[in-house]
Amino acid sequence: MFGHETPLQLTDLPVGVLVVFACSSLGVYGIVLSGWASGSTYPLLGSLRGAAQMISYEVAMGLSFVAVFLFAGTMSTSRIVFEQRHLWNVIPLVVSFLVYAVAVVR
After folding, report:
1. Cβ 17 vs Cβ 65: under 8 Å
2. How many Cβ atoms from other residues are within 10 Å of residue 81's Cβ?
3. pLDDT tens for residues 8-64?
4. How far, in Å, CA of 79 to CA of 74, rounded?
5. CA angle 63, 14, 59 (to 5 degrees)
6. Where do the structural domains in the chain lie, given as residue ranges?
7. Contact 53, 106 (CB under 8 A)
8. DSSP characters for 54-67?
9. b/e burial code for range 50-80 (CB count within 10 A of at least 16 → b)
10. Could you give the CA distance from residue 106 to residue 102 in angstroms, rounded to a whole number?
């Protein structure tokens, strides 16, 4: 902007993607606590089932990112974006992208 290069992120952690994973997995607690707060057995079992489904999709999503980490050689978000300057990661990692797309839609 105005002759200066301004990154559009607050900070660039070396393990920035792991911070995003940790924050996104906090939704599991809400599902389990809502079933527990009902005070009955069956809603608690249903919430545990829902939490198990969310965790299984998060595992598939996390494993699809491992290929991106290996391909880019880093876990920094800005460096992963920089490594895609010539060829997007979707093209060589199409299987990983399809697994990610299915896991996100859940």
Report:
1. yes
2. 13
3. 777 778 888 888 888 888 989 999 999 999 999 999 999 999 999 999 999 999 999
4. 7
5. 15
6. 16-105
7. yes
8. HHHHHHHHHHHHHH
9. ebeebeeebeebeebbebbeeebebbbbeeb
10. 6
